[in-house]
Design brief:
single chain, 241 residues, alpha+beta, 3 domains, 7-stranded antiparallel β-sheet, 4-stranded antiparallel β-sheet, 6 helices, 11 strands, globular, DUF3256, DUF3256 family protein
Length: 241
């Protein structure tokens, strides 16, 4: 009788283990197939502190307008206009006013969900597509629930302005003395950043200093646009233009 009871208990344990393994497998499969958050969903949960002059209701409306490809400008709390003019599952561009814009990009990581890259850009005056504008960008990284992460971990520097020195290069025909003199004209050093809507590429260039056209033409000889590639959970320099 004891022998039979032992067999029954062993069978019960085996059934329990099987049920437990099945449950774990089901939960794992369910979590793997959870739909990934889109930029639009993440945008709607953005804390008010990041853009204080857009209320939650306005943030809810903007992705709908963008997905319909209509001019969905909303009146912000500063009596100006904000518009989300580009939206994909992983990217959004929002023109906050005449001089400020932001870009949101979902970047994949190897050991967790995608993180959010936020690029804020301020421009002074109008922008000519054939010249470098005067302005400045800031890059920040967040989890999908808007906990801020270390910029240095993903960018390799505490701020994008700390990468300014990599955005000049000396032509072979230029003397070291001339190159040094031209670099000294870049004051202050401010970096403009643009993240691609199509891929995860980040392009960096120096803001145009307040110089005359003639001085800027001379300085332009040493300015380069640096392209950073997202790989293994951080940005790396791949080329210059």
């Amino acid at each position: 009788m004891q022998y039979n009871n032992s067999i029954v208990m062993e069978k019960d344990h085996a059934v329990s283990r099987t049920l437990l393994m099945t449950l774990v497998l089901m939960l794992t499969t369910f979590s793997i197939h959870l739909p990934a958050k889109t930029v639009a969903e993440i945008w709607k949960t953005m804390p008010d502190t990041i853009i204080p002059y857009l209320d939650p209701q306005q943030r809810q409306e903007m992705p709908s307008y963008a997905s319909m490809h209509v001019d969905g400008s909303v009146d912000n709390l500063l009596e100006g206009k904000c518009r989300m003019d580009t939206l994909t599952n992983s990217y959004a561009h929002i023109q906050l006013n005449a001089t400020k814009s932001i870009q949101l990009k979902l970047l994949p990581t190897s050991n967790q969900d995608s993180i959010v890259c936020l690029v804020e850009t301020w421009l002074a005056g109008s922008v000519d597509k054939d010249s470098i504008p005067t302005g400045e960008s800031a890059i920040r990284f967040f989890t999908q629930d808007w906990k801020e992460l270390s910029t240095a971990q993903f960018l390799g520097a505490p701020s994008v302005n700390d990468l300014a020195d990599m955005l000049t290069t000396k032509p072979d025909t230029m003397s070291e003395l001339t190159y040094k003199a031209l670099k000294e004209k870049i004051d202050p050093k401010m970096v403009l950043a643009e993240i691609s809507a199509e891929d995860n590429t980040l392009r960096l260039r120096l803001s145009r200093p307040l110089l005359s056209d003639e001085e800027y033409k001379e300085l332009h000889q040493v300015l380069v646009i640096r392209q950073l590639s997202w790989s293994n959970g951080s940005y790396h320099s791949v080329n210059q233009q």
